[in-house]
Amino acid sequence: MKRRTFFWLWLLLMGIALADRPAWMTSAESITPTDLQAHLEFIASDALEGRDTPSRGLNLAGMYLVSHLKRLGLQPGGENGTYYQALTIRTDRVKTESSVVRLGEREFRYGEGFIARAIPLSLTAPLVYVGYGWTNHAQSIDPYKGLDVRGKVLVVLNGFPRSVAQVGLERAEGEGWISPEENARRRGAKAILRIDPALMTRLDRQSRMWARRLVVEELERDEPGLPLIIPSRELLDALCQGEEVSAEELIQRAQAGEAGEPFLFRASKRLQIEIAVETTREQARNVIAIVEGRDPVLKNEYVAVGAHLDHVGMGTPRQPGEDVIFNGADDDGSGTVALLEMAEAFAHGARPRRSVLFVWHVGEEKGLWGSRLFTEKPTVPLQNIIAQVNIDMIGRSRLPGDQSRRNADLSEPDEIYVIGPRLASPDLGKVLDQVNAQYLHLRLNPRYDDPNDPERLYYRSDHYSYASKGIPVIFFFSGLHEDYHRPSDQVEKIDFEKMAKVTRTIFGLVWTLAEQEERPARVKPQQ
């Protein structure tokens, strides 16, 4: 009799405890390590060839997501009633066979005698050496003083003055520094020839990397830059022949960090530059889906949750059999499949009052292309997005006994870095703390939650495109590691138990933000 009484008392207490659990917790439990691994084994497989933007592999990854979104019954959130938002990428590549530099009777071919930016150029011009080419009038630093550089080619050293290095490139403009390119524009120079000793011995390998890609249409506002040429040692020797300063001395200056005095090359010396460029246009597509909220009014507001679908593609083998596929299991396969599992949990569970907007961005690795496109041409009203939650690299943990310095910043199995909540809103961090205290009690590490952190992580992922529009953001991240942007970022190194805990916690945060009465407060966009 006592055992039966105890059993019914236990059932009663369990019923009370379950009744006190928020509705989202039951849905969160459907997010499992096994399901995350099953999705990631496809997303980070060799068949997808590193998911470069644009690429066949990236398209296949998007189709995989859409097939699941359709099965789950999520609403299309892209353009024209589809799950896609297309961005057009213009790629400019140097036509190597038609690009040449001539000095007198000598001719230098592309990839052997020089490499250049993919900017069309036909020019014959004299040259002037201006050290690093940086100026700072407040500090009376002006290598152009007394020199007329209009119509000329600027010869500069690779790098920058020690004073620029001390303040950092990000802060240089605010400290009064003006770059060589900006000086060239203001002073009418036509091109820059940059002495870079590190590239001189491997021009041909580097030449393949000098294609220039831009997102076109609404986002093509980046200035094309000034034509830039990197000479080989042979070309630099020819340029310096008969001058007071030898090629060897200029190389030594570049290596020692000493610019020396500016000078004009001989007036009779003219450099003829012919750079031919071919242009192609390709498309890549953000994937966007919506879980509609249950409230007839608040369903028109959204909590956006995002990850980037792309990675960096494939490299070039240096020896037979070398692995050159950058699978990106952690970066950001982990975020990609976390979003998909969250979408399934929302589709099969109780729905919050507001809608949830899922966006898998492309082109993050190229400069936040997909998130920039979405925030410039949103498929839902941007003012109706009350917060954006970004998931980028949540799959790794520092292993016991790991002495690698490159893994020193990895978080522990029960820990996750949280970036942005207190920068973009006074409320997001409070909601996250509440959810975490109710549920899995992760260690929420704010280490990188500082816009002045040396790693600058607040500015390096898709959430920043939203933050720059004044939308409160929060970014989940497990830390940089020795496999970052290497072919060794593989599925077998993922901590799926941790990944499931983090994904469930994020699910609870998104559900709570979508359910609560008030929007998170907004703050002035970070610049």
Describe this structure in words.
It contains 17 helices and 20 strands. The radius of gyration is 27 Å and the shape is elongated. Helices cover 31% and strands 20% of the residues. Strands 1, 2, 10, 14, 15, 16, 17, 18, 19 and 20 form a ten-stranded mixed β-sheet that branches. Strand 3 and strand 4 form a beta hairpin. The longest helix has 20 residues. With 527 residues, the chain is of the alpha/beta class. It has two domains: 287 residues, Aminopeptidase, CATH 3.40.630; 180 residues, Glucose Oxidase, domain 1, CATH 3.50.30.30.
Notable traits:
6-stranded mixed sheet, alpha/beta, 527 residues, 17 helices, Aminopeptidase, 20 strands, Glucose Oxidase, domain 1
The proportion of strand residues reads 15-25%
Biggest sheet layout: 10 strands, mixed
CATH topology of the largest domain: Aminopeptidase
Radius of gyration: 27 Å
Q: Shape from CA axes?
A: elongated
Give the helix/strand class.
alpha/beta
Mean pLDDT: 91
- Separation of the first and last Cα atoms: 70 Å
How many beta strands in the DSSP annotation? 20
CATH class descriptor name of the largest domain: Alpha Beta
Count up the helices.
Answer: 17
Say which CATH homologous superfamily of the largest domain is assigned.
Zn peptidases
Fraction of residues in helix: 25-40%
Low-confidence segments, given as residue ranges, are 7-18
Q: From the 3D coordinates, which CATH architecture of the largest domain would you assign?
A: 3-Layer(aba) Sandwich
> What number of structural domains do the residues give?
2
